[in-house]
Write a structure and sequence with these properties.
This protein has a seven-stranded antiparallel sheet with strand order 1-10-11-12-7-8-9. It has a five-stranded antiparallel sheet with strand order 3-2-6-5-4. A five-stranded antiparallel sheet has the order 14-13-17-16-15, sandwiched between helices. A hairpin with a 5-residue loop joins strand 7 and strand 8. By secondary structure, it is an alpha+beta fold. 40% of the residues lie in helices and 25% in strands.
Length: 754
């Protein structure tokens, strides 16, 4: 038979009324557990302790109606008291006339399966006649069974709460709870706790220390639903389900044989509910014989179901926190992996090196083996591989996929532009057996909608790919594609800038009679833009040579246009005009008259003409807003060469003033751009004075290149080798000792021709 309380469908708490009801039920449970103490009284006569009279509580305590009799010796009415020594105590009080008091005395009432444990505070007092003779004994007692049980229950409950508070493992808490209840119960009871899945549709084993292992295994994972045993039904209804006789209850039709084998005949199940009413599990009490619960049994179930709910919710909260921390750590690890890999990829401005770093980033982080293939000239080229051993690397690096083969994963991915994954070796020929390959992931690297390369990750042994690895590989491939594209664009742009810059500078220095010429040019940054600094040396009629060094405002294509305009204008007009002032005036007019699309920036320039003489080099120059040239004389003194003049391309008349200078043998004229003097150290610029000192430090009788080397070393030391902010250019003209000889020979030969 069964007694089922409540409704037939799932119920959920949550209203204020429900909370008030819960509080009322809790108070009721405490009263049911702790009970109310009852006082017992009996008047016993003679040495046989004949029961003369007693109150109803006395008869109810010793056994109810079957023992409600007077005129019978107490030892005969309650024979179990004899073996426990209580009749002997009565005899002593009767003989001595001295009362006896006992506290917390344990008494077993009844026999066999119906025996009941009880606890009493009692006193035996002698009854005397007028002459002081003992006529009998008066028994007065208060049953403290409920108090004793309450103390034990409170102690066990406190232990459980302490375990929950210190976050003891949930199995330990539930097992301790089950054992405590089994110990506290006056009759044999087997406790089981089942835990609900996250969706509440199945119940899993939580704790059942006294049930057979085969039984626990059989019910592990049972569904929640109407008629699925006591626990499945209680979980479904969200209300207690009491089955007093398993053999006769239809809820147990599917489990009756199992219950018989386990030796259980009754099962009372209480749902364990969270504070929001969601299902956490069930708390069940099994009995060996058919049995109906008392109010104290139901109260005990509710109290410990609530305790179990507290422990389970605490466990779930801890699990959620741990899972959240694990997800957060995994996300941080993924972000760090991508950041480190991206940094490694982006710091290389060589596409092949970037793809090599891609392979190194993936193995072994994402897979034991990795290969990167790229399409070049209509065929697939393996540009990178990564493996744990050199032998494996050799096998992997030497394998070349077939671009257009339908049975090759790399070819298919290049054609489709989508990733491919399989838990098997790749199709097509390859060293898969030697490498112990068990699976692969092939991801395309896409640029402007077209796959130009693939990243292939290979599993070995027990390694396998999951969605997380696929997502990381695809994101890394996307970043690698961008890095490779940027590297290729950098290479192309740098090559273009070099080619254009080379067209604007001298392809090679000419041999100037009587002069040693050296130049230096270093572009700012990565060399991606055409610089604004330029120089030139070219011959004129009558043995004269022209030289110039200048700086265009700005960089890039517009600066290149202006540079070309200045150089070509100077080369075109210099043979036709009498001197440097006229040439620079022509250059200025060309700049002022240039189209707006060709730039509007100004130009600084030093332009001069040199003529070899018996005493060295005769130089005439003009300076148009440029840095002051330096004259290094034979005594290693350095003199600035000042020739006033305005910037070019700004006003029609730059007000140029020519300056004449004579270089004796081993003396030098140093032209430079402001990239030298404005080179930046830690907190200041290189400056004019450091440049002057550097030029003066050149070795005795220096060649032109020696002067440049001395200056560039000083600048490099000052800047610490860091990248420069502006282009740097130097042109050095050094008079040689052969200048005078060459001129004398020319003069000596000239009369004989006449």
């Amino acid at each position: 038979m069964r007694r089922v309380s409540g409704r037939s469908g799932p119920q959920h708490a949550g209203t204020a009324g429900a909370r008030i009801a819960d509080t009322t039920h809790a108070d009721h449970d405490l009263r049911a557990l702790f009970g109310e103490s009852s006082a017992v009284f009996a008047s016993l006569a003679g040495p046989a302790h004949m029961v003369e009279t007693a109150n109803a509580a006395f008869f109810a305590t010793i056994g109810g109606p079957d023992r409600t009799r007077t005129g019978v010796p107490l030892g005969q009415l309650v024979p179990e008291l004899v073996e426990q020594g209580f009749i002997e105590l009565l005899d002593r009080v009767y003989r001595t006339g001295k009362p006896h008091t006992g506290r917390g005395a344990r008494v077993l009432l009844g026999g066999g399966a119906s025996a009941r444990e009880a606890f009493f505070d009692f006193s035996y007092e002698p009854r005397t006649d007028a002459g002081g003779n003992v006529m009998g004994v008066r028994l007065i007692g208060v049953e403290t069974t409920q108090v004793e049980h309450a103390q034990r229950l409170t102690a066990e409950h406190r232990v459980l709460l302490e375990q929950i508070a210190r976050q003891a493992p949930l199995p330990e808490v539930l097992d301790g709870m089950a054992r405590a209840i089994e110990e506290l119960a006056p009759e044999e009871v087997l406790v089981s706790v089942l835990l609900a899945d996250a969706d509440g549709r199945h119940l899993r084993h939580g704790a059942a220390p006294s049930l057979p292992a085969f039984y626990n295994q059989a019910i592990d994972g049972i569904a929640t639903g109407e008629g699925v045993g006591s626990c499945g039904t209680a979980a479904y209804r969200r209300q207690p389900v009491i089955v007093t006789d398993i053999t006769a209850d239809p809820f147990w039709d599917d489990f009756r044989d199992l219950a018989e084998k386990a030796g259980v005949a009754a099962c009372w199940s209480t749902p364990i509910l969270a504070r929001d009413g969601s299902l956490l599990g069930t708390f069940a009490m099994y009995h060996r014989t058919p049995r109906s619960p008392q109010e104290a049994d139901l109260a005990l179930a509710r109290v410990f179901a609530d305790t179990a709910a507290l422990g389970i919710e605490r466990h779930q909260a801890e699990q959620a926190r741990t899972a959240a921390e694990a997800r957060e750590k995994a996300a941080r690890d993924d972000l760090a992996f991508l950041l480190n890999a991206s940094t490694s990829l982006s710091t290389s401005l060589d596409a092949a090196e970037a793809l090599k770093r891609l392979a190194e980033a993936c193995a072994p982080a994402l897979a034991p083996l990795c290969a990167v293939d790229i399409v070049e000239g209509g065929r697939v080229v393996r540009v990178a591989a990564a493996a744990p051993t050199e032998t494996q690397w050799d096998l992997l690096a030497s394998h070349i996929p077939v671009y257009e083969a339908a049975d090759d994963a790399v070819g298919r991915v290049l054609a489709s532009g989508t990733s491919e994954i399989a838990r098997r070796t790749p199709t097509g020929p390859g060293p898969w057996h030697d490498l112990d390959v068990t699976g692969y992931l092939c991801v395309p690297l896409v640029d402007r909608g077209t796959a130009f390369a693939t990243l292939t990750l290979l599993s070995t042994g027990d390694h396998s790919f999951d969605g997380h690895t696929v997502a990381l590989a695809e994101e890394l491939a996307r970043r690698a594609a961008a890095a490779a594209r940027n590297a290729r664009q950098f290479t192309q742009r740098a090559a273009l800038a070099r080619d254009l810059q080379a067209g604007l500078l001298l392809p090679g220095l000419p041999d100037v009679p009587g002069a040693d010429v050296a130049t230096y040019y270093h572009p700012a940054g990565e060399g991606l833009d055409v610089g604004g600094d330029f120089y030139d040396v070219f011959p004129l009629d009558d043995g004269r040579w022209a030289f110039l060094l200048g700086d265009v405002c700005g960089r890039g294509a517009v600066a290149a246009t202006t540079t070309a305009l200045v150089r070509h204008t100077a080369r075109a007009v210099a043979p036709l005009l009498p001197g440097p002032v006229d040439v620079v005036q022509a250059v200025n007019r060309a700049l002022i008259n240039r189209p707006g699309s060709h730039g509007t920036g100004f130009v600084t320039l030093v332009y001069g003409q040199l003529t070899p003489t018996p005493a060295g080099l005769a130089i005439e120059l003009v300076r148009a807003g440029h840095t002051l040239p330096l004259h290094l004389d034979s005594r290693h003194a350095v003199h600035p060469v000042d020739a006033p003049g305005l910037l070019l391309g700004v006003v029609a008349d730059p007000q140029l003033t020519p300056h004449h200078l004579h270089l004796r043998p081993h003396e030098s004229l140093v032209l430079y751009t402001d990239g030298i003097t404005e080179a930046r150290g830690e907190d200041e610029l290189f400056g004019d004075q450091r440049l002057t000192d550097a030029v003066a430090d050149a070795p005795g009788h220096p060649a032109a290149q020696h002067v440049i080397d001395t200056v560039t070393r000083a600048v490099h030391a000052f800047t610490g080798g860091h990248d420069i902010d502006d282009d740097q250019a130097i042109l050095v003209l050094t008079a040689t000792a052969t200048a005078a000889t060459a001129t004398s020979r020319a003069q000596a030969v000239e009369p004989s021709r006449g």
